[in-house]
């Protein structure tokens, strides 16, 4: 007997030449696309439709094939289909509910596709009709809310979230999506929180719920009062906030794990062997091939939580076993497919501190550590646009953390020491650090390490000025806290000082190229003022008196760089060009650094002459420094420990608008509604009591 094939809603025998037969559901769709009411020929039309397996491809294709005028002719039937879908959501038969949810997805996407043309008809009117829109959308949102909160099918909940994600991302710019007004009025915020607070629901649907919330928070956030922003900012339930943190931590951990796997695979390959053979001249090219898609959607969720909710800060430090070292617990097959860029859901083993006990032999971690590791990977390569956006968002999140008093308290807590293995960019002049040699230190050390690593590794022709400014601001904010609270942090400050001096050297060496694109004096002033902060207040927060001596030693040792900087800014500040004012600010800021150099250099030369030494050792220079502090005169500089607080609306609105647009496009592109086969659903529903 000939094999039967199915394609695009058609049934045909492969060996026969007869006209293909259409599926019954396709014939019913064709009836909807006629101008007359389909119930005239079949009074039970709508009852039967939702028992048929949905053909998403055919329905969406049919809608897209019509022009605006043709679509308006069948508007009444489209309205009827939309309303009957909403009615079917209240049915007891789960198959009807599933088919109704999938049909709604196809309808919304198909009608929105048409709106991209010049026909310009109103979407809401086309889907539900203006007169019934408010009531219909209220019923739809209430039904979705009930399904999400009910103790029923996980597959139905998954489809509900998919429908909501479809609804939110159907336009590139979500703020232009007028349907979302109804999602604002009929809030599903509590349903999202319920998913995040329950271990089972979170494991199955946490990722979609968190991405959905992040997108809803960004709907017209600068133009009107967004209830999701208001509600997210006041959530104080520990289980819910921890649940959200665990979903984010798991997604970031998954990224870190994938990157590490690719890195190991890369290093063990032929190219690695070849690189070892011929030296490290190809090392940068080798590393560029290690690419894992970034996840801006989950990063946006972390940002919104940190930025809007003060209570979420405590979640950053919540200890849990390091996810990469855990054995994966058995869990149901996730209904969410693995998809790229901005929508990649993690595997379904989201860890809850209540679900998995801490093991003394397992390295403990927390969301902040996972995030710092993620940042260290994405910030390595800022040439790629998505990584650049991710890197910028990582620095914005760290800026919010560095400004928060409570976050600073646990960052600097001596009793909270962790071993944080950050990823370091392969460079010719340094060896790769061994993971095992990492010391346990307060978390702020890892943040400073990340900033130093970025400063050292991004001095290039395509200079990421904006990211450098953010880096220096984060260091400054952490120093302000240390000065204010007199925290003496045992950190290798020399690495930071050396990185900052090398940055100044780079700015001077590339003055002409950089000035064509950037105001390098803003950055130079910030770097110089960091040194001024150490000079003026270092005795209150540097760990030992010898650390303060070492600061002076570094300034004196590298005095040529400061002399060259002074010459450059003096030259530009005495000219009448566009850089006169910013350059003169740097000139004034260098006053104490120049005083130190001019005070100690003659003393060091005199010491060398008296003792007949051609080149002094570090200890000898430090001896000269210690014995000549008394005669050094410095000027008190105001405002060194002051900074402008982060403000999203005034400075970052354009960035977030573009970022959310990119996330919306990718979420929409990767949504899958037909991942649930009818057989799986029937099997699941047969076991539901």
Automatic annotation (TrEMBL):
The keyword Chloroplast is annotated on this UniProt entry: no
Main location: membrane
One Pfam family it belongs to: ARMH3_C
Organism, scientific name: Pterocles burchelli
SMART domains per the UniProt record, alphabetical: DUF1741
A cellular component annotation (GO) from this entry: cytosol
Keywords associated with the record: Membrane, Transmembrane, Transmembrane helix
Keyword match Transmembrane helix: yes
Compartment(s) of residence: Membrane
Protein name (Swiss-Prot/TrEMBL): ARMD3 protein
Record domain Armadillo-like helical: where: 435-671
